[in-house]
Design brief:
263 residues; elongated
Length: 263
């Protein structure tokens, strides 16, 4: 009597199936990554849109945009602190200590170290990690910023305000009517590049030495390369600004760190 044959795979057939599945996964992964990055890009654009809308909402209430930092006065604040109630962060804003700013940076859970999703680029690998706490990848348009701050032109959308502001004391925020180029032609917020701090510099240095080499693809910028959305009073108080002084082709907008206000 002949035994009935049993259905099954041979070893070769099994290896072929595994190889086909591996190829399909290899083709699928780039597509999934592309979709994820497209979603992150859309979320990043939405973050910038929300910041712009928050500024306009602030303007509707106060008839002017917030300053980069309120310097030298009894009420210490920053651009992003002022925008908190306009991006659904009202509870944090209500807890903010404007008269004793040191209280915002102390304790087991400092207010200034809060992680605000709208302030951080979702494409950065640390966007959902604790390392992003208190940092922002975005910056306001600081215009033609000079150092020292007394030489600044205040032709941007944000600059220091208050009794200790520079180059003049008691400066106030920008009104929409003062934007003579039109708001559609004026940058309000920008994003810092997610790149290595030495990538372009290395290329330019090699170019100046006559060693023309293609620029390397920069790795992701360290998390410490970004600004704090609520830095403590002092030299870094308005570091979340971008300057237009960078030369054409310079892909990393520079932050501004003015000197501390006079005593």
């Amino acid at each position: 009597m002949s035994r009935p044959s049993r259905a099954g795979f041979t070893l070769i057939e099994l290896l072929v199936v595994i190889a086909i599945i591996a190829i399909l996964i290899g083709l699928l992964l780039p597509a999934v990554q592309k979709v994820r990055e497209a979603a992150a890009r859309a979320k990043c654009s939405n973050n910038l849109k929300q910041l712009a809308l928050a500024c306009h909402s602030y303007h509707d209430v106060n008839d002017r945009f917030p300053g980069a930092v309120d310097s030298g006065g009894p009420r210490f604040s920053t651009l992003f602190v002022e925008l908190l109630p306009h991006i659904e962060q009202g509870p944090l804003h209500s807890q903010w200590d404007f008269t004793n700013p040191g209280n915002n940076y102390s304790g087991t859970s400092p207010r200034a170290s809060a992680r605000i999703p709208q302030f951080f680029c979702p494409s950065h690998p640390d966007a959902d990690a604790g390392a992003a706490a208190g940092l922002t990848t975005y910056g306001g348009n600081g215009g033609t910023i000079a150092y020292p701050a007394a030489q600044s032109l205040n032709d941007g959308m944000f600059f220091t305000t208050g009794p200790g502001s520079q180059p003049g004391a008691n400066q106030r925020g920008v009104k929409l009517l003062a934007v003579t180029d039109g708001t559609s032609n004026t940058l309000l917020f920008g994003e810092r590049i997610v790149g290595d701090s030495g990538g372009l510099d290395t290329y330019l240095e090699a170019q100046s030495l006559g060693l023309i080499t293609p620029p390397q693809v920069p790795p992701l910028q360290p998390i410490a390369g970004y600004s704090r959305w609520a830095p403590a009073p002092g030299p870094e108080a308005v570091a979340a600004l971008l300057t237009s002084l960078a030369p054409i082709g310079y892909v990393r907008p520079s932050g501004w760190s003015p000197p501390p206000p006079p005593p």
